[in-house]
Batch of 2 targets.
Target 1
Amino acid sequence: CSREDADIAIAQWTQAFGIGGNVDPRVTINQTIPLFVALMQKDPAIKPLLARVNVNDVHSAEFGAHVLRVVVGFDLCISALNDGLVLNEITSHLAKQHAARVGVKREYILGFFQATLVALPQLADNFNTDAWYNCALPIFEAIAADLH
Ligand code: HEM
């Protein structure tokens, strides 16, 4: 993840999900819900893990709040791409939070990376797959580091 890759990944993520700009957070939430829905269709074992955040109604305020926590958490990571020490602190914290949730598997987090690969080209101009692989994939891997 070169400095150039990082800058591209940050810019395209920000454009697509609108965090840090003037985009209504409801837009961000509505764009992210289908990623979780696709993940759960692929692997139904994910659904019970999200029962506490009202996954039975993905358009509920509770599920929206959960999705926003995920996006904001990921945004913190992406925004720290040019500061390895900070990035490491954030991903370590996220890794611990997920390791504490029994049933969350490494493949779910990596599946979420794949879901972003499908969604981002539709949301960002001239989406750069290489930059996303080089810079975003290591973030997902770091979040999954303590999972099996
Ligand atoms: C880049 C990807 C992800 C990020 C940045 C992320 C971030 C977060 C954050 C910030 C929380 C709240 C933690 C807390 O307050 O304790 C959370 C909770 C959680 N995440 Fe993730 N998450 C990601 C992907 C996933 C995926 C793919 C799954 C699939 C199973 C998942 C499962 C959970 C569960 C089960 C919780 C707890 C829900 C609850 O409050 O009951 N996460 N995540």
Target 2
Amino acid sequence: MKGVLLVNLGSPESPTAKDVKPYLDEFLMDERVIDAPKWLRTFLVKGIILQTRPKKSAKAYAKIWWDEGSPLIVLSERFANKVQQHTKMPVALGMRYGKMTIKNALQELKDKGVDEVLLVPLYPHYAMSSFETVVVKVLEEQQQYFPEMGVTTLPAFYKNADYIQALSESIIDGLKDFEYDHILFSYHGIPERHIRKSDPTRFHCKIDGSCCKINSVAHNTCYRHQVYDTTEMVKAYLGLPEEQVSSSFQSRLAGDPWLKPYTDFEFVRLAKEGKKRLAVITPAFVSDCLETLEEIAMEGKEQFMEAGGEDYKHIPCMNDNEAWVKVMAKWVNDWEATGELAVTPST
Ligand SMILES: C=CC1=C(C)c2cc3[nH]c(cc4nc(cc5[nH]c(cc1n2)c(C)c5CCC(=O)O)C(CCC(=O)O)=C4C)c(C)c3C=C
Ligand SMILES: [Fe+2]
Ligand SMILES: [Fe+2]
């Protein structure tokens, strides 16, 4: 029988330093997140980052935590439950890090008689630190514990027409009653080095954008290319003028150069340029989470207003909205019926 495995990033058990620490430990010790040699990663993570960051992150998590738990987990569960209502196949939800493990989700599917799994990483764009690490982990667990199961992965859906439509409609919805001068598409950042590492040609990606209009197989795994494609397609769908839209990258860690422009610098630049009413959309995330609710909706607003902005709105992620649920249900049901994937690297 066929079944569906949805995988998102995961959250700590609670917004306390005690619970944030093991979560960050697992997350940042992932060789696809901090891709230094193991001895150096161990030194950086356990010797430096984990000494101070859990306390700081716990404070941020406490600001956005819900009675039911982490917004990312709760919203992903609501989404999975709604997708389940639209398909006969069993649907399970796992997280790459934390207690809601991928192994348990695969076991849940197995217990329901599933031996053919459609894996859907809940990331619209391919990055080694998000999409790729999910795929690798699922295949590791499958090979070790569920060798009889087959796994097919839905590719990154950043430019799929149904996804673009659902995202664009959610923006229209979010902009009701909000007068804006500018819409900022703020994507989670990654180190520039990761772009080069993920380029199978080893020479295509130049990071500066000069490569992105030249067709290449590199784009299938180029996060930068993919996020700019999402912006362009939404811009076209909504008929937005060039000068009213821009893209930027948030949530960087200290150290290496990360993709630019940086969202916090953009808040200041846009306010100074007279874009006084700013709408911010965060399409790298399908579910609201720490990075959208705290960094963008709270901190971002403060930064923009301090720089001279007058009005600010974070447009929520698609979360469990009906249109997005229906898109996902269509993709998984098409796969069940035909064995074909609605999303391919070229769609
Ligand atoms: C869009 C997908 C994501 C990519 C790509 C990504 C890369 C990436 N992240 C870190 C470090 C941290 N990210 C943190 C939180 C976080 N990251 C994503 C998604 C992507 N990360 C999400 C959805 C969340 C929120 C989780 C939640 O519980 O709500 C954190 C933890 C919080 C903090 O301490 O700031 C860290 C750390 C790196 C280093 C990286 C690429 C190399
Ligand atoms: Fe992150
Ligand atoms: Fe490029």
